[in-house]
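Worked problem 6 (solution included).
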Amino acid sequence: MKSLFDLTNKTAIVTGAAKGNGFAIAKGFLKAGAKVYFVDILDEKLNDSLKLVNNDNAFAIFADVTKNKDLENMVSKVLSASGKIDILVNNAGITIGGVSSEIYLLDSWDKTFSVNLDSVFKLCQLVGQEMIKKKRGSIINITSIGAELGFPDNPAYVSSKGGLKMLTKALARDWAKYNIRVNNLVPGYMRTDMTTKSYKDKGLYNERLNRMMIKRWGKPKDLIGPAIFLASDASSYVTGIDLYVDGGWTANGMD
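Solution. The predicted structure is:
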């Protein structure tokens, strides 16, 4: 049974890995035996994070995922060092919320889509071309319950994550013939920097908590097991799915 979840001799890229959900997933992959490339634009934080994991199979790549040249250089570095890419986790994301749709700035819209959707497609293309050569691979896109439900005052985030959800299904359909699996990992409200405002606001905190079947906010470590499942042979017959890690939020009905 242990061998099903073993990532030994696998090479993984995790974007947005300097902190939060990305860091937890990357650290989990290391413990499962993978060689992991931690990718982030936060160079100082990334260095600090690698010092924390203290693992010879952990490597840092500083990259802005919105820049094509950075994506190309990233993939080239990984291939030069490891010769393959078995796992890609597209975790990097931003949110620019708190503004109603009728006055939402187009600049905020463009920035959000550039990180949350455009960069993911570009990186999937670059990595997918290499996975096609090897006839295997697992791509995990980090969406959100915002891809499933209408959340207020953040049209770009909701739309970009909804688009990412369907991009995953399109890629799963196109690349299944190459034995490349593409799935969504769907976090609910996790205790990260992105949710600090609502976590610290007692009213918002309780409002969100009340929607969860499991009565606690999620933690980044809650994503480790599901991510390893999707990355490993344990999910060899799984593609195109949305795996919810949300404390039951999206399945919840009436109080």
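Discussion: Helices lie at 20-31, 43-53, 68-82, 106-134, 155-175, 196-200, 202-209, 224-231.
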